[in-house]
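Worked example

This section walks through a single chain of length 223. The input is the sequence exactly as stored; nothing has been trimmed or padded.
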Amino acid sequence: MPTPNADVIYSMSHFDLKETGPLVVAAPPDVIGMFTDFFQRTITDVGLIGPDRARGGLYLLLPPDHAGEVPQGYFAFKSKTYNVLLFFRTIMAKGENGPNPKPAVALAEQTRVYPLWAMEKDVQPMQLPNGSGKRINMMYPVDNTFWTKLKAFVDYEPVSSLSMRIDRYSISRMRRTSAPSYGCFFAFVLRINGHATERTQGHFQRHRLCEQARVASSGQAPV
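Given that input, the structure is written out below as tokens.
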């Protein structure tokens, strides 16, 4: 679908590797894109700065708990989360009256996704809906359902996917301000996931300190 970059077509998809197992993505040539995990950390670039060098190729996406054989012939990458995002761009050709989207759309439609070890004859044709001009609500919830969704996400993903770097950043931020920070959020994430280990006890302690600072600065009751 065209974006504010008027000469680019964006193609996006979401994969659940817990449900599907390892997935093969056949990327077309001349794509500019990436795969990211659900924390938007790049798994690998695709295209000119990716391993296929704009020639296209077969990418193998492995779930975080994959311990089996990794076959040859793929650009293989293991995601830290089961949920993975595909984010491709294809550049429109120059037309008589401006950018021509048809070649870029045709190139994007060459993308194929199928389970590892699937027989080629059994692979279903790709469904590529056109999102141009469609209205979609991409806002996150602002009521209590936010926390329900957050807990469902954290429970679904392995605890190893929670990067300690997030908390180190939040600690430095807490030292600069008494306002609620990502440190409170990170400790809450660990707490609702039920992983009260020695390593996380320090996060809970920082959560309490963060709450004390918040109450002292705002006069509000603790959460």
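What to look for: The chain has two domains: 8-118, 145-218.
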